[in-house]
Amino acid sequence: MLLVLLVFGAAAIGLVFLTPYVKRGVFLLGALVPLAGFVHALVVGPSVLAGTELVERLPWIPELGLTLDLRMDPLAWVLTLVVTGVGALVMLYCARYFGPDSEGIGRFASTLTAFAGAMYGLILAEDVFLLFVFWELTSVLSYLLIGHYQGRKASRGAALQALITTTLGGLVMLVGLVLLAVEAGSTSLTVIVSTSPSGALTTAAIVLILVGAISKSAIVPFHFWLPGAMAAPTPVSAYLHAAAMVKAGVYLVARLAPGFAETPAWRELLIGLGIATMLLGGWAALRQTDIKLLLAYGTVSQLGFLMVVTGWGTRDTALAATALLVAHALFKATLFLVVGIIDHGTGTRDLRKLSGLGRRAPVLATIAALALASMAGLPPLFGFVAKEAVLHGLIVDAEAGDGLALAAVVGVLLGSVLTTAYSIRFFWGAFARKPGVDPVEQSAPVVPSFLIAPAILAVASLALGPLAALADGAIAPVAAAFPDQGTDYHLELWHGLTLELGLSVLALVLGAALFLAREPLARLQARVHSPVSASELYWDSVGAVDRLAVRVTGVTQRGSLPFYLGVILVVFVVVTTSALLLGDTWPDEFRLWDHPAQAAIGLVMIIAAVAATRAHKRFTAVVVVGVTGFGMSAIFALMGAPDLAITQILVELVTLIAFVFVLRRLPASLGDKHGSTRKLVRALLGIAVGVVMGVIAIVASGARVALPISLEWPELAYVDGQGRNIVNVALVDIRAWDTMGELAVVIAAATGVASLLFIRGRADTPARARRGAMRQRVEDRLVRVKEQAAPGELRNAWILAGPTLDPRNRSILLEVVVRLLFHALIVVSLYLLFAGHNLPGGGFAGGLVAGLALVARYLAGGRYELGAAAPIGAGTLLGTGLLLAVGTAIVPLLLGADALTSAYWEGEVWLLGEIKFVTSTIFDVGVYLVVVGLVLDVLRSLGAEVDRQGDPEFRVPDEAAEPVDASGADGTGVGIDSRGGRG
């Protein structure tokens, strides 16, 4: 079963790529997949029906007890035959339905195959959460299939309507499944049904699950989405809305009925809504002039019929429900396929325009007649056998004095009358000659290959009637799980002169009479109009949500960042304060500090924070805010966390530099125009946030009731990670998955910043920018500068690009310091990188130090100096770093170990002495490169690129001009400001 499921998935992907080569033949290839599932089910059928369930289990997340469990029992076996058998025939039908140049046939074939696989998985899923995954997958795939004609507004609207309705029901069902699994103590469907927990919580869970079932199976009040889904191609209607997706809700009810049919509200809910759906759908079908819509409302009616009998929950009704489910799939899929052939041949589905088609297409009319006879319950069709069984199962309990059963019998009888009437209406509307209507013209005769699929389904309906005893042998094991009513009832074509036979005859006679009275009935239906429509309620609700969204957006989305931040902080204060007032986890004692220096540092941080609010210049505000960060670094150091202290200091420095790069293009003073308004409100909100955060810290310190897991980290770091620096080992080994995700976020942020600033392209370094080439470019620039300079104007250079700067912007002291410290900083960064596994440091801290060294080169010499110092592209560093990190996860898999498993080597190396190398160091090197790449990206975007765009020589080349490298006016990857300096 797992293999078949994988084949469905692989085929869904592969068919798209095969379509350009095989055209419509892709459907024939696609049909082989459900056919394989059908054959597999036939092969294992005897053992499954004999009581040997087929179970396959694949561990998924063992730590959480989650497994991919598939189980084929008699019920799943019957549904598997329906889903795969009808699916194969529908795919075969599609090969003729779609033209060779039809739009998106590859996409359609792939999606239809994927849907068939999702239904296959849903039926066989043993775990309730795996069932939910397939459940929602069918909703998503049905959305794609219904909306196949993307250019049609009706298709898009119908697809969205079906998706919203079924997904909403599915989410409600998920809550019920969680509650039921908790009550049963297991997520296994078999265990849940066998234990059958009871109580108020179980009842609530069952009701929530039934909401999902009735929404999926288009039961009132969720019935409106199915007729709207007729905007889909006809094969979709034949498969999803006759044989597959709409059966999911019925299947779930049948699966849970053995354990929960006696649960309060189960029968009342299903019988009441089922009868209402059967009558409403049948009544609406008699009003339709589009034969496809007629079938759609007829499907709604039949689904109500199925829900009534499936939900009753006895042995005889379970037998009848399974038979009716098979019969419905056969006759309704046939009729939808017939509608597709009629539409193809005549170009219309309007029964007022169709006339005389029965004489022109007698084989098609015969196929339709067989399917309609089965739907109406005429012998010897299998639909008759199934309806007889339904009436019998309900009559037995009605005769025993069950009032609900009597109501069900009456409802089924009235629904059967309507079924007969709209069955005759379909045949009359599609094939009969109508007075005053010209015979319909066919564009081409129906080719035999177009009739294969509906003919097979119709013949199956006809054959299963006389072979009812054979069908009973396959269906009876399904009913064995239900309580026996003591009648020993079996499926047979003839049970004698029984009450149910009389009711069937009565329904046929009354249905025929109702059809004959179609003109008075039409006048009555025109006068009778329901003031409430489920479809109108849906669209009114959607419209109300849209209008509310517009108003909320208009009020809240003002384009004001302070307003957005204020809303977030107000919600935070209100919600968190409410939680704090309702909680009782307060500490027993309060400790203001562990060391007097902490109080002094805290006082400095408070003063700096207040000063930031009083600053009138942007740069001053940024620097003062940075004081709070440096104060936090000092607290980390006092608390014995040198790694955090070092990292915090480096981050503050890099952040300060990034702010400076941005602020240099803004006015130095905040000014009155950009000053704060409502200062008192902002101050009060800021104080409230600070107080709440302080209270949270106090409460959090007293909330712990167990020993923290961090106590085990020193041992884990040394034994598993072979390192003594707990922080670094955690980042590159114990919690490396988190770090890998953070690296991806860092790369995304760097790409986003650069994408906003680079005008003509993202490349920050030309392909030919090797170090030698870059140095030559800088030297060429120096030559030009010397040629243009007056005698004695240039000063001696301590750095390569010093003379390229405007003399007013040069600092010899800064150049000397950078010349002396740059290489030392690089060595320190490498030391932090490789020593970080056992000593303070690591790839993150080392990368920041290397980045600061590049910052110093840029500040001293501008963009040309940065180009000479780092000719490699930031994107190359970012990509290489991520590749190394990902590689440390993949390589262990190739060696048969878990991802990110680290190994170590220890030995004596000449000159270096004893060396211990851990493979997680490679991961740390990746972190180092990503951080260096991030800093370099900031320098080249916020720094050099902004400089270059401010250069009067800068221009955006037109299409005819010679391309100018977007990363630098001369290809160096850096820019120059209007003064010829570093900005």
From the spread of the alpha carbons, the general shape counts as elongated
Structural class from helices and strands? mainly alpha
Low-confidence stretches: 762-771, 954-983
Strand order of the largest sheet: 1-2
- The proportion of strand residues reads under 5%
Measured distance between first and last alpha carbons: 67 Å
Q: What fraction, in percent, of the residue positions are helical? A: 55-70%
Count helical runs.
36
- Overall mean pLDDT stands at 86
Main sheet: strands, sense, barrel: 2 strands, antiparallel
**Rg calculated over all Cα atoms:** 37 Å
- Number of DSSP strand runs: 4
Which oligomeric form is depicted? single chain
Question: Please, could you describe this protein's structure?
Answer:
By secondary structure, the chain is mainly alpha-helical. It has 36 helices and 4 strands. The chain has a two-stranded antiparallel sheet. β3 (904-909) and β4 (913-918) form a beta hairpin. It is elongated, with a radius of gyration of 37 Å. The two termini are 67 Å apart. The model is unreliable at 762-771 and 954-983 (pLDDT under 50).
